[in-house]
Structures are given as structure tokens and as C-alpha cells.
Amino acid sequence: MLTDSTVETWLREDIGHRDVTNSVPGETTGRLVPTEPGVAAGLDAAAAVFEYLGVDVQVQVEEGHQLDPGDPALVAEGPAQDVLRGERVAVNVAAHASGVATRTREAVDAAHEVDDEVRIAGTRKTTPGLRGIEKRAVAAGGGDTHRLTLSGMVMVKDNHIAELGFDRAIERIRERTSFATKVEVEVEEPGDAVRAAEAGADVVLLDNLDPAALERGVEALPDGVLAEASGGISMDDVPAYAATGVDIISLGSLTHSAPALDYSFRTG
Amino acid sequence: MLTDSTVETWLREDIGHRDVTNSVPGETTGRLVPTEPGVAAGLDAAAAVFEYLGVDVQVQVEEGHQLDPGDPALVAEGPAQDVLRGERVAVNVAAHASGVATRTREAVDAAHEVDDEVRIAGTRKTTPGLRGIEKRAVAAGGGDTHRLTLSGMVMVKDNHIAELGFDRAIERIRERTSFATKVEVEVEEPGDAVRAAEAGADVVLLDNLDPAALERGVEALPDGVLAEASGGISMDDVPAYAATGVDIISLGSLTHSAPALDYSFRTG
Amino acid sequence: MLTDSTVETWLREDIGHRDVTNSVPGETTGRLVPTEPGVAAGLDAAAAVFEYLGVDVQVQVEEGHQLDPGDPALVAEGPAQDVLRGERVAVNVAAHASGVATRTREAVDAAHEVDDEVRIAGTRKTTPGLRGIEKRAVAAGGGDTHRLTLSGMVMVKDNHIAELGFDRAIERIRERTSFATKVEVEVEEPGDAVRAAEAGADVVLLDNLDPAALERGVEALPDGVLAEASGGISMDDVPAYAATGVDIISLGSLTHSAPALDYSFRTG
Amino acid sequence: MLTDSTVETWLREDIGHRDVTNSVPGETTGRLVPTEPGVAAGLDAAAAVFEYLGVDVQVQVEEGHQLDPGDPALVAEGPAQDVLRGERVAVNVAAHASGVATRTREAVDAAHEVDDEVRIAGTRKTTPGLRGIEKRAVAAGGGDTHRLTLSGMVMVKDNHIAELGFDRAIERIRERTSFATKVEVEVEEPGDAVRAAEAGADVVLLDNLDPAALERGVEALPDGVLAEASGGISMDDVPAYAATGVDIISLGSLTHSAPALDYSFRTG
Amino acid sequence: MLTDSTVETWLREDIGHRDVTNSVPGETTGRLVPTEPGVAAGLDAAAAVFEYLGVDVQVQVEEGHQLDPGDPALVAEGPAQDVLRGERVAVNVAAHASGVATRTREAVDAAHEVDDEVRIAGTRKTTPGLRGIEKRAVAAGGGDTHRLTLSGMVMVKDNHIAELGFDRAIERIRERTSFATKVEVEVEEPGDAVRAAEAGADVVLLDNLDPAALERGVEALPDGVLAEASGGISMDDVPAYAATGVDIISLGSLTHSAPALDYSFRTG
Amino acid sequence: MLTDSTVETWLREDIGHRDVTNSVPGETTGRLVPTEPGVAAGLDAAAAVFEYLGVDVQVQVEEGHQLDPGDPALVAEGPAQDVLRGERVAVNVAAHASGVATRTREAVDAAHEVDDEVRIAGTRKTTPGLRGIEKRAVAAGGGDTHRLTLSGMVMVKDNHIAELGFDRAIERIRERTSFATKVEVEVEEPGDAVRAAEAGADVVLLDNLDPAALERGVEALPDGVLAEASGGISMDDVPAYAATGVDIISLGSLTHSAPALDYSFRTG
Fold first, then answer.
1. For residue A51, which residues of chain F lie inside 8 Å, CB to CB?
2. Which chains pack against A, by 3+ Cβ pairs within 8 A?
3. Are E174 and E146 within 8 A, CB to CB?
4. Backbone angles phi, psi at C68, to 5 degrees
5. Cα-flanking dihedrals φ and ψ of residue F181, to 5°?
6. What is the rounded distance in angstroms from the CA atom of residue E37 to the CA atom of residue E73?
7. How many CB pairs under 8 A join A and E?
8. F156 contact residues in E (CB cutoff 8 A)
9. Catalytic residues of A
């Protein structure tokens, strides 16, 4: 959840101690408007910035809405001084989140051209401080958030397996993991996927494989065990990976390298 | 400055309440290593993550260093459990900041091919929560931070001028602004640049002009008054703007749309 | 994770602005020692209190260790003034967490007398501010943490089902839930358990049923779908519920009503 | 006082980053209702949770009110999504505080059967993070809060006396303590009580004495000096201690071992 | 207690995002030295600033020490960059606190010329954010901190008495106040002092009386009830008030109007 | 900017855990009224205290208004309990800030008697935690805030110059400083002022000079370079310094040694 403390941090870092020019009299209305097509996200966070400042604000579209240039996404009304004080931060957070959502939708659309069941997922490669907002933006773009924190799904890594073997490593993790939590096992060879599944993985992560190798791994998996592809997959690679039958394709770039969506904030 | 509270926020959002797998015994050494060329930034912030966790950490290169793939940028040594707990967040912040620095250097290099005096500057279009880190990254890439907060330089906007005229608007702002603070005036017509300068601007911001119009505005300015170009300038546009004789070219995309630099974290 | 900010909050609320008597000269060693048998938990948190104050501290036993009266659980060494400043808070957190762990182990032991596969789980009925510490204490006592936050597993409640029916309600939730996240469905009639399972539940929560009704619900479930019993189950009821073949028995009282374990802190 | 930051901490630890199921449309009304008899406390804190979320909330009874099962204690009205987001935390804090108040009233009633002047007091053995709420709950149950922090009353301990003797130890503390602050002296022998009083104690703490020994210590005290009994006194011991003529009986278990009062939250 | 969070706030407000000049290489030693005579206070807080930055620091004198110009009060050693980063804030807090201590000692000395038993006390008129530090400084100067917070002693005000009469107002407050807490009653007529004492006040506050009126009120009080004079008493008035036999003279100006003690910070 | 967190800190330190007397029924109106003439400042901060508590509040005068005794500066209306809870803190912050503003106006008036162009400026010698409020108060009193943080203007100190010489030191700083930021050079000899100006200083700080020496330094400066006098200048010295033609006179005492303006808070 987005807290008041976080909004406070954003405003404080932008404003500093004192903004001399910001003693504007009167009331104003500001509209947050995209100047290019994209997917709406981060509007609740932008609204929270204005709410912190005591400005009335209405979000105009749902998260995930496909915006056309000029569509108003959010309207803020109140003392000009307070509207202007929130403007820059509100635009920044909406632009960032909508950029993530837009990039995610592109990846989802590219994948669904090939296989409309495959999921495009984010990773833990998020911008520090913005985990929740970026994960919501991935969802807004039609993607899968993946686990939100380290505590959300347990990952059995190669070093665990090297030490104990598949069966023992997974068994041990299972004992220490809640029934409420899934266990994912990371493998680096297609042939290991089926072993992980047999040892009890809920999900098998096939790391850093090319599409052909990935496909061999995926095909061997029994029903009910999900396969995730991850590791250095670019936007251009998405269709080839989607064609492998894998269940989930994870892309760090959705969150760490999506360009911002350009918005302007029009007052008066 | 980067505070312990901020690092705490980053770790908490990544870890959640409890990380079952992270009871790894023993000590380990981790190396933060780029997998592609780029400019080092955010390493102090990455180090602060490990320091918060009580892990010994050494930054290996200066901010702004041009990294080759495989160069160790940071080394962390300590209990495996603590090193692994900090890994993801440390990588995320270094990757983000180094991405900003790398993009900045590209812009600076492109500009200096044409005019080696022109400055490439960031804007207030930063990622919420990361203002300080992104501004340092811009500097690491050879760019100019521009003002860090609203309080850092005062901007006289078109609405002030519309209301009061150049002379009166600038005079009024001057009265309310410290001697320690510069005053920048935003103009949207090249012909207004000289009027702003005569009225006492330290810097004139020529907003949303094409290079030809910009050049007319810049040429008219007296010595000692700086000219800044801003507004919708892409990386490809940099050389054309640099050729106008403008002093500063500002790019929001340095901070809001730079792709992350890819790092891996190698332990053992 | 337990942050420095949380420890700071604990100390500040105990100490207030100024502690006149606490200008004790010299160094001291303090030992945290249980005065009754119980299960160790919260020792990392107690240690963090001393670490915040710059006192050297060694935890003497693992979380989950069965303590006898007089066993030292933690040793703190440093300036007497700082050791004494942390004492009360450190004891309070260890006593609370160890009480939860001890109560959990009693429940686990009672259940395992009957069925050594059944899991005893905590709930979200935790003490505000201590979610993570209480969940770790449940695990220390041999229990299952259950989901740590609302985001950790998705619950389909009766009102969702009333509105949309089992299939549609579960399908809709599935679409909006990550692959990394399990879906649990709450039913109030034993006969609904199998319908929930068929509609795709990973876990079925049988709420407020007596053991006989619970058993009917559990027996009807297919393999691979877990059954959880919850709602008003007291410590005395545990064996009867354990005998039903249910997979998980959840008890709010593990966290909200466990008496503290008595510790004393011996200095000198 | 309960701050917004504290409420924020409670909500964040319960919700995590994102609650998928919590996009419930429409408005709702929720009622906090006890399912067993007990003493109302923590309702202001529960209300503060809803207020943080922008939900209208009315506390229905005073702190300390004796609740019957089914009595509405608090009513919250607003967007269903926000009411449900606050529900769990609000119930948890009210259940905990009301449990403390209920346990306190039991102790007070047991004591007053024997001596209706004796005070039942809490201690500093409170749950970390909940000092203020638990102290208010003790008061709601008819108990005495005792000092709220280390700074609230000064305690002269046996180690001070061992070093300096009664007179000198108390004199020294007096010099360093504000006139606004009482001084309590801890003794472990009944015969020392009167010496402490003569040396200037406002209150004498008779620690870990059985009722007979306690009575001897109490009887020797001059008028105007209060006697407090503390140390390992259980609920069952209260009448015997109350019969000694002591002024205050302190019980750590009021705050650290009171079972929660069971509440349900009924919406619609 | 002074927390890391508070120190962080002080440093952040002084430094802002980035301090370009502060990349000074090498190690340095800094000495905090008064340039005028005064009373040492706030040195622990100044030390905490350096400790937050990882600088070794030694406080050279006790709180309350009478400093001569040039006496080193604190020595900090470490990386020049970190020493310089802390300098301004450390000096500011020491200068402020030592100013309060110095002013307090002046008042104490003036009072003790006349009556060496009378106490000079601070009030709740402290600088927001610095309550604890200023109260410690008052104590360092030989003054009495008075209550530290609203919760520290209970004040019965004229409006309570107007409504209920002395006896009933005090009785009611007594019932709701812990045995650990003193009750002070505020009176505005000398004749009311004795009535307040008879009704059970521990302390009587004689508000806004001239010395003659005060003396009449004080003389009438029975033994064991303390008399406090407060309200508009200047430094010059202290001897006249001290001569009345009053027990405590409270001065808001100790904390809200004491000039800073001048320190310089000498490095190298 | 003043954040909710800061207000929370102020209230918490004043109130502590629980204020027994503060259960006053009914509504009240409180008026903040000066009892002596002075300059209004800090009223927004005082208002923020009441707003945090949910009390309606109206500031009656502009920052910088010359108040007469009895003029209402702020009116707060709401539940008596909440108004009284905020009273002390609101008065304290307004009294402190108005004291700074009043002292500043005295200095400005004294200076303008001699030279109506000279600016009276604050310094970084502010009270920890109150930088922003004190800087606004300086401005309210007609003074110049000077730089708000270390990041606001760059200072070239004597140790930089000693190492590199004027030209090289300033050139190096210039390279690392944004175009948005001024550079000030500190000199300790009048003869160095002109060298600093020639090397490119925007402002020259003449440190610790007497008026005669200062005047020699100022006269030598070229047009467009500002001269600042600083270091040990008392209120009494202001006219003599103002007569030198210097542009700015900086006084630490404006913020660290101004006595509070006396306000009373009248309710009912």
C-alpha cells in the first residue's frame, strides 16, 4: 500500500525547504493528460500526492485503460498553490508507472500473438522504493506481478540443490515453508526440469535457456507444474519464447528499463 | 544525502516479513559486476545497503568511471545470509543509477562532438524517491544536475510574466529571492529572451523551440546571461541543439527513461 | 524484517525523554534467562535492541530451542548504562515471542499425538506492530506461519461466491492473481468443499465447522487440494480436529492470547 | 498519543504491497461487536485505523464500558474497499486492548472484594509498540497505569542502596530528580520498608514478598508513604495480597498475558 | 532519548541532496571549542551526529561543566568528508543546548544568592523537536526539568476548579491519575493556595503573582506541599521571587529565549 | 516544507503516552494573541499542528505582519480536547518563529537607516529541526534567507584556496557545480576580495573583518559581484557594517539567539 509517509518523502525531496515562487493566489484546476498513447497506471499514487496536500482529485480512468493523447487521466482542483506544489511529483509517478504498464502491454500483446495463455511477468528487479507501484503497473498492463517480496514464494536455487540434491533440497524447503506459499525450483539444464517437478516443485524456473532448450524442458513437465522462463529475455525475444509452450515469461526490463509515458499537466 | 531510513524502506519492500530460504550458514564474498559497458553510479547507495546490514563493503571504482563488462564495481564480504539479503536491492539501485549515468554520458558525448562547452542537464522529472541518487548519477555521467529542488533556483514562468510584464515580474521575484539564489526566466518566443535578460534574468529558459528558433534567441542574449534549451528534446536531437550555441540542454529522459545498466552479483 | 526504526520506537516509548537514574558507570554483562520451561523465540529481536544501543550481544540458542529454567538465552555485554537501557524492552519482546512459540508447540504436540502430518497454523489475528515477530515465533514453535500479509495468498470469501458462484468467482480471482500466489476458498458447508476444489481452489478453508462436519468436508476433497479448519478452535479442541484428517488447523489464539514466557535479566 | 505513523505501520504489515481481492465496489457499514462479555478498550485506536483510510467511524461506547456479546462497540461506514482494508487491524487492536482491560477489571474486582481502596497497577512489562494503548486499557479496566515511561517516576534499586546506603542513595536521586517526579524505593526485606520511608521515599516497592512478609513491611510504614507489592503475583494471589493493607498491587500479566477479547466485524 | 531518526532529520535539512564541495580527501580531527565562558550541554547530541556519520568522537567534559574559552568540549576524528558533513549540525545543537544551560545557571546562581534551597525550573515552553535536549540542558545548568511531558505530572487548572470546586476537582483528577504521578493545582489568588493544599495538591502553582502576593500564598501552605511560582518572571525578577520562600521558580525563557553559546569547530 | 511527520514528532514529545486531564467535553475556540509587539511568523506551522489534530484553524494575518499586543494571529475551533492538545506546541512554534522574525526586522531597520539597499541575512546556524521554519521567519522579518542547505550555493573556503590558489580552486568548483548554483568565495583579507571576484566568484564573503577593513574589500570589487560580511557581527554592529557599502550582512544570532515573542492562547 502507498502510505502518507512515502508521499511526504516524494514531496519533500522535490520542494526542499521553501518555494519562493509558489505563493500563487486563487483556485485552479489541473488536468493530467498524456501526450502520447499508452496504458494508464500510477494514477492512484498521483492522486495520493494531491490528497496529501488537501487538494480534491478525481481519477478519470481505470488502471490499465488504454489512453489516447489528450484524454484526461486525472483532475485536481483546489488552491493554486497546493495544486502546483503537487504537480511535478504527481506527473513523475504517473509517467513512470504508465511507462511500465505500456511496456508490459507491448510484451503481453507480442506474446499473445503467438500463445494467448502465456503470462508476461515482472521480477524483483524493480526501482528501489517503488516495488508496489511498479507491480501494480505490471498488472495494469496485463502482466503478472510475480512474487511481490522474497516472502511471497520460495525459490530453491542451484546452490541448495548442489549441496543436497533435488529431493532433499526441496523437501527441506517444504518443511520450512507455509502451506500458503508456493515453491519454485530454478534449473539451468532442460533435463533438470522434470526432476524438479518430480521432487515437488510447484513452479520450475528455467534460467537462461534459449527457446529450443526451453521447449525441451517445458515439454517434459507433468501437468499442473508451471514453467517459467527467465534470464536475459529482451522484448524482441518474447514471441520466440512464447512459442515454446512455457507458462510464464519474466522480464526485468518491464520495470527497470521502461521509458516514461509523457504526460502534461494543464492548469487554468 | 542517502539516509538509513531510505535504505530500510528499500530492504523492507523487497524482503517482506520473513525470508525462509535465507538461513544460509557461513561467510561469503559478493562482487557487483557489469555485464555490459557503462558508467558507474549509485555505488555509494549500493554500499549503504550492505552497510545497513552490517556487511563489509568496498566500492572499487569512482562514480563516473567507464566500466567494462566484468570489472568489479563493488565487493561485499560478510555472513552469507546478510550478503544475500542485500544483493537484490543493491543491484537494483546501482543498475538504475548507472543507467542514468550511461545515458547522460551518451548525451554529453553527442553534444561535445559539436560544441565542447555546452552542458547537458537533468530536470525535475526524476523518479519519486530517487532525486538525490539520480542527480548524482547525472553528474557522474558528466552532466549538470540543474537545480536539485524547487528551492534551488527560482523560475519565473509565463503566467507570472503575462500578469505583470517582464520587468515587474522579475523585479518582484528578485525581492523575494535570496542573493544566494539564481533567477531563471522561461520564454516561449526567441524574441523574449533578450527582454528577459535585460530585466535581470541570470538564466533564460527557451522552452519548446526548434533549433533554428533557439539559435535566434541565443544570439540575442548579452554576455553573462546563460541560455537553456528544454522541452521535448530527444537524444537524437542533441547535436542539432548543441550547434545553436545554447549553454545548457536539459533532457528529462536522462532520469525518467534511461534503461538500467545490467549488473550481475557473483558470490563465492 | 525487523528494522532499526521499529527498535527505536520500542525504546522511545519505554524511556521517554530522560532517565535520571540511568547514569550508571562501568561495564556490565546481562544474561536473559527463562524462569520457566518454554520455547525460545524473539531472541533476534531482543538482540537487535542491544545492537541499536551499541552493546555486544550473543544469542545463545536457536529459535525453537526448548529452554529449561536457568538456561541463558542471550548474553549482552557493554557499558552498564546502555545494557540497562535496553533491558526492559529486550525482555518484553523475547517474553512475548517465546510465549507465542511455547503455546504453538503445545498445540503442535497435542495435534501430533493424533496425526503427525497435520499442521498447526497462525492467522492474521496478530498483535499490531508485531506481525513478523509473531509469525517467526509460530514457526519457532513448529507451527505454520500461514500467509504473512493479505498479499501472500488470495482468499475467496462467501460474499464473492454468493455473487458469482464458485466457478466464476474463482476464475475471476485466478485471472487477477499471480501464478506465484495460491488461491484459498472459504466454505461454510462441508458439501461446498468439493465444489471449491473442482473450481480450482489450491486450499479449501472450512470455516466454523465441528469436527464431524469438518471430516465430511475433508473426505470429499480430491488429492492435492489442502483442507484448512479455522474459526473458534480452542487449544482443547485441537486433538478432535486433528483426528479429522484435515491438513491445517488455524488458531488465532497462538498469537493473540498466548501468555508471555517469564524471563529474568541477570546483570553483574 | 497514537500517531498516524503507527497506524500506517500496522496497515502496511497486514496488507503488504497489493491486495488483489480488495477491489470491492460500493459502500458498506461495518460493526465491531464482541462475541463474549468484556471491557471496552482500544476503540479509539481501532477508530484511528479507519480514519487513516478516510472511513467515517463512530465509537459507540466509552472506554471501560462493560460490553455484552452483540453490543456494537464501533461503527464504520464508507467505501467497502476501505472498510475491509482496515477491518483486520482494527479488530486486532481492539481485541488486544479489550483483553487487557477485561483482565484488569477481573483483578480489580477480586481485590476490591477484600479491600476497596487497593489499586491494581500495570508495569513496564508491556508489548513493544503498544505501551500507550495498553496503559489506557489498564485504566479502562479500572486499574492504575503506574509510570508510563522510565522518565515518569524514579526508582531507587537495590544496587544503588547497596553502594550508598538508603539515606545517601535516596538523597542523591532526589537531587537529580525534578520536584514534579516521585521517587520509589525498591526493598526486598520487610524491615527495609520503614528505612526507605524515613530516607524520603514517596513510594516503597516491596518486591517478591509473600503476603505475610508484605504485611509486616506495610504496617511499619508511616502515613503518606505508599506501599506497592510486585513480583510474581498471579491473578489467584490477588485477594491474599489485597488483604495485607498494601496500597498498590502490580501485575505484569495484565499486559503481557491477557487473552484477547473476541470481536467479530459484521458488514453489510 | 535522542534517536537516529532525529539526527538523520537534522543532517538532511542541513545538507540537502548533494554537497558538491564536500569531497575532501584524507582524515581530519575536529575540536569543538567554546569562544566564551558557559555551561556544557548538548554534547551527547553533538556526538550522536558524528556517530551517525561513522566518525569517532569523544566528549571531553561532563554535561554541566563550566567551560572556559578554548576548552575542548568534544573531539571528532575520521574521514575529513564525514567530519565536515557533521560539523554545522553538531555545533548548532551544542550551541543551543549550552546556551540553555548557561542561562539556567545564571538564574540558579541569582536565586541561590538569596535562598539556596529554591529550585529554578524549566517549563513546557520548549523549542519544538528539542524537548528532551533542552530539559537535559536545564538539568546541566543546575535547574529542575519540571515535568517532561503532559503525562508527567497532572495539572488542575482554574477551569476545572471553576466547574467543580477545589475538593471535587482534585478528587476527580486523583481518581484518574496514577499513584506514580503528582498532582499540581494552579491558583491565581494567594488565598486559594491553602485551599488547594487542603484538597490534596502535591504542588501548588501560584500563577502570575507579584512577590508580595506570592509570599502570602507560600506562607499559608502546610509542610510537605510544594509551592511553584510561574508566569512572566524575568531573569531580573529571580532574586525577588527567591526571597519569598517559594520552592520552585519556573521560567519559560530558560528554553525559549536563551542566546546560543558561541562555539567554534577547529579542524586539522 | 513542513510535513505531517514533523508535527507528529512535536506533539508526541509534548504529550507523552497519555494525558489524563485532557478529556474535556464540548467545543471551544482558541485565539493566539501576542502580548507584546512583534512580527508574525510560524503561523502556518502553528496551524499545521491544529490541522493534524483535525481542528479548524484560520490564520488571521500574513507572515511578516507587524502585530500589536492583543491582535489575534490565529483562531482554532473544534473539540476542546483537541484544541487543548495542540495549544502548547502551536504556541511554542509561533513564539519561536515570531521571535526570529522580530529580531530580523530590528536588524533590517537598523541597517536601512544607514543604507536601504543592504540585505540582512540568516546563516546555517539554525536550531536543529527548524531550518525551514527559521528561514521563512527570517524572510518574514524582511531578511534574506541566504542558502537553505549546503546544496543551495557552493562555498569555496580558505583551505581550498590555500591548496590550489584562487583561480584553480574556483575553476575546479565551477566545473563540478551546476549552472543553477552560485559560487561564493570566502576571504579573510580585504585584498583578496578582488582576486576572488576576478577568478569568477558570484559572491565574495569577507569573513571576520572590522568595518574599515571590510570597506576596503568592498570598494575594490567590480560591479556585479556581491559582497557579504559575516563573522561575529552583533546587533549593535549592524549600522557600522551597513555603512561600508557591503551588499549582505549575515547574522547567526537572528536564528540562534532571538528571544521568543510572547503569545497567549485564549480559549472560550
1. none
2. B, C, D, E, F
3. no
4. -100, 155
5. -115, 135
6. 12
7. 3
8. 21
9. 125
| CATH superfamily of this structure's domain E4-107+259-267 | Quinolinate phosphoribosyl transferase, N-terminal domain (3.90.1170.20)
Residues D153 and E152: their CA atoms lie apart, in Å, by 8
Identity of residue A178: S
pLDDT band for F60, please (50, 70, 90 cuts): very high
* Shortest Cα distance, chain E CAs vs residue F191, angstroms: 24
Per-residue pLDDT reduced to its tens digit, E39-51: 999 999 999 999 9
| Maximum pairwise Cα distance, chain B | 70
| Nearest in space to D54 (alpha carbons), one of D16, D11, D94 | D11
| D219 Cβ contact list (under 8 Å, min separation 6) | D245
Give mean pLDDT, residues E26-39: 96
Residue B262 Cα distances to A158, A249, A255, C29, angstroms: 21, 19, 13, 48
CA dihedral for B154, B159, B163, B164, sign (positive or negative): positive
Contacts of B17 in chain A (CB under 8 A): 151
> For residue C212, is pLDDT > 70?
yes
B176 touches B207 (CB < 8 A): no
Portions of chain D given CATH number 3.90.1170.20:
4-107+259-267
Q: List beta partners, residue C119.
A: C248
Does the beta-carbon distance from C5 to E5 stay under 8 Å?
yes
pLDDT digits (tens, 9 = 90+) for C39-67: 999 999 999 999 999 999 999 999 999 99
d(CA C10, CA C235): 31
Which residue type does F263 have?
Answer: Y
Q: How far off is chain C from B15, nearest CA to CA, in Å?
A: 7
Q: E43: closest CA among E29, E61, E55, E28?
A: E61
Contacts of D3 in chain F (CB under 8 A): 8, 11-12
What are the grid coordinates assigned to E176, written together?
484518574
List the single residue in E12, E19, E85 with the smallest CB-CB distance to B3. Answer: E12
Distance in angstroms (rounded) separating the CA atoms of residues B222 and F94 = 46
Q: In the block, which residue shows the cell 555485554?
A: C77
Q: Which residue of B has its CA nearest to D15?
A: B16
Spatial separation of the C-alpha atoms in residues B181 and F202, rounded to whole Å: 11
SS (H, E, C) B94-119: HHHHHHHHHHHHHHHHHHHHHCCCCE
CA atoms within 13 A on the CB side of A226: 19
Q: Is the model's pLDDT at B19 over the cut of 70?
A: no
Domain with CATH 3.20.20.70 in chain C: 109-256
Matching residue, cell 544460509: B24
Look up the pTM and report it: 0.96
Q: Give the span between the Cα atoms of F151 and C194, in whole angstroms.
A: 65
Which residues of chain F are within 8 Å of residue C16 when distances are taken between CB atoms? 16
Query: Which CATH superfamily is D109-256 part of?
Result: Aldolase class I (3.20.20.70)
**Cβ contacts of residue E165 below 8 Å, gap of 6+?**
none
Q: Tell if the CB–CB gap between A13 and E13 is shorter than 8 Å.
A: no
**ipTM of the complex in this document:** 0.96
Q: Of D125, D135, D157, D182, which one is the catalytic site residue?
A: D125
Which residue among F125, F135, F157, F182 is the active-site one? Answer: F125
Q: Which residue type is seen at A100? A: V
Return the beta strands (E) in chain B as ranges. 27-34, 38-39, 56-59, 66-67, 74-79, 119-121, 154-156, 183-187, 203-207, 226-230, 248-250, 263-267
8 Å CB contact between E82 and E61: no
**Phi, psi dihedrals of residue C33, rounded to the nearest 5°:** -135, 125
Chain D residues bordering chain E (beta-carbon distance below 8 Å) = 119, 121, 139, 144-149, 151-153, 176, 178-182, 184, 203, 224, 226, 228, 247-248
Distance from CA of E118 to the nearest CA of B (A): 45
Write the residue in F1, F135, F149 that is nearest to A11 by C-beta.
F1
D13: closest CA of chain B, how far (Å): 8
